[in-house]
């Protein structure tokens, strides 16, 4: 067993260990609306659920040299965003939205994705997604880096509306096999759902 002190590593080396170890990671495909009306969309794999009471989710969105990305800035300004769960049917389009575009350009248009009106927020969703969650900002917490240049923004969102495709929904549950979600590994690698099995929790 190799023993390593993270303080002896560079940021890049720590990143490689974290992203190579914490796998597969769920991906949040997040749409936001800029103050000038540009529909932004980008994927983030530092993402998970926090609690069901109320339904809260968290997304860590890294900064560039302390500067917020469009997603964080837009979400903070409007107080709203939409999270989609990427699946095998449109993951290549999601990957295209990771391109480094200016704030005046729409990744949704670049990837030829279809915007669809939301019910409770102003931010449009993406029609290709089998699951989308309309969210409002609960908290935004700058983390890491230095006080002047935080390394990331932790977006905590409260889900105010779900959209779930009929073919993956049954009796209040979601069929993971039909959803066919895609998870993130290290580097440029992704993962599909493999063999699933059940374990009974001890009493």
Provide a compact summary of the structure.
With 203 residues, this protein is of the alpha+beta class. It contains five helices and 13 strands. This is Flavin reductase family protein.
Amount of beta strand: 25-35%
Please identify the structural class as seen in this structure.
Answer: alpha+beta
CATH architecture of the domain at 23-45 and 69-139 and 161-182: Roll
Number of strands: 13
Low-confidence blocks of residues: none
Side by side, the strands of the main sheet go: 2-1-5-8-9-4-3
The coarse silhouette is globular
CATH topology of the domain at 23-45 and 69-139 and 161-182: Pnp Oxidase, Chain A
Number of helices: 5
Task: Please trace the helix and strand order, writing H or E for each element.
Answer: HEEEEHEHHEEEEEEHEE
Distance between the termini: 33 Å
Protein name: Flavin reductase family protein
Keywords: Flavoprotein, FMN
Pfam family, one: Flavin_Reduct
Organism: Fictibacillus barbaricus
General description of the model:
There is one protein chain. The chain is α+β, with helices and mostly antiparallel strands and 203 residues long. It has a domain at 23-45 and 69-139 and 161-182: Electron Transport, Fmn-binding Protein, Chain A (Pnp Oxidase, Chain A). It is built from five helices and 13 strands. The protein has helices at residues 11-21, 70-78, 91-96, 107-110, 176-179, and strands spanning 28-33, 39-44, 47-52, 55-62, 80-84, 115-116, 125-126, 131-143, 152-164, 169-170, 173-174, 182-184, 190-192. The strands form four sheets. It has a seven-stranded antiparallel β-sheet, covered by helices on one side.
């Amino acid at each position: 067993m190799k023993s390593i002190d993270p303080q002896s590593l560079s940021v890049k080396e720590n990143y490689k260990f974290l992203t190579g170890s914490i796998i597969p990671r769920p991906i949040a495909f997040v749409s936001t609306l800029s103050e000038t009306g540009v529909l932004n969309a980008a994927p983030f794999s530092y993402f998970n659920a926090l609690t069901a009471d109320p339904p809260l989710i968290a997304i860590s969105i890294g900064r560039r040299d302390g500067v917020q990305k469009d997603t964080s800035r837009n979400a903070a300004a409007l107080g709203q965003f939409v999270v989609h769960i990427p699946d095998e049917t449109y993951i290549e389009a999601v990957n295209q939205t990771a391109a480094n575009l200016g704030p005046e350009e729409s990744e949704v248009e670049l990837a030829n994705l279809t915007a669809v009106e939301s019910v409770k927020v102003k931010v449009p969703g993406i029609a290709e997604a089998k699951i989308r969650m309309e969210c409002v900002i609960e908290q935004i917490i700058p983390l890491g880096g230095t006080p002047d240049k935080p390394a990331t923004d932790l977006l905590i969102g409260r889900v105010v509306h779900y959209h779930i495709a009929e073919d993956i929904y049954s009796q209040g549950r979601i069929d993971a096999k039909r959803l066919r979600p895609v998870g993130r590994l290290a580097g440029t690698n992704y993962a599909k759902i493999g063999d699933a099995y059940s374990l009974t929790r001890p009493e």
